[in-house]
Design a protein that fits this description.
The chain is of the alpha+beta class. It folds into 2 domains: 2-33, no CATH class; 39-151, Cyclophilin, CATH 2.40.100. The protein has 4 helices and 10 strands. Residues 43-149 form the Cyclophilin-like domain. Keywords: Signal.
Length: 155
């Protein structure tokens, strides 16, 4: 009789654990949830660009500010910039070259969107990179431009 009760208890415990075990559906859901919101959109006029943020505190802090619509000013014929209302955490480095589509932080509060590639000696903190920057320069145009940044929902 004791063996019977022990077997029944073991079976009940095993079934309970099986029901709560993180199986394939739970694992898939976790992957989907972690990748959701892991891209950004930059809307410029009629164009929308998708950017992948880097994995750092600066990008996380920046994403917490979104959605955000900003008027970016022209600088040097290769970038647009906007001074954020608050400082973000920084991890500056000297990238030696800038690529079209880089989204970076200059200092602790200046958002910079580069639309041309060039060599640099300045230090920046990486925030994101536009996945396909083709057409970015044309979309930004000359002078100041409004850019709406948001966390992309879904895949």
């Amino acid at each position: 009789m004791v063996n019977y009760h022990a077997s029944v208890v073991s079976l009940v415990v095993a079934l309970a654990l099986a029901c709560t075990w993180p199986g394939p559906l739970t694992a898939q859901r976790a992957v989907s949830e972690s990748s959701m919101g892991n891209t950004l959109t930059l809307a410029i006029g009629d164009e929308t660009f998708v950017a992948t943020p880097v994995d750092n505190r600066t990008a996380s802090a920046f994403k917490s500010l979104l959605p955000l619509s900003v008027r970016m000013s022209e600088l040097n014929g290769n970038e647009k910039l906007f001074r954020l209302p608050a400082s973000l955490p920084t991890q500056p480095s000297r990238p030696s070259s800038i690529q079209s589509g880089d989204v970076m932080l200059y200092g602790s509060d200046t958002l910079v969107l580069f639309y041309k590639s060039f060599a640099t000696t300045y230090s920046y903190t990486r925030i994101a990179r536009i996945d396909d920057p083709a057409g970015l320069e044309r979309a930004l145009g000359p002078g100041s431009v409004t850019v709406t940044l948001a966390v992309r929902q879904g895949k």
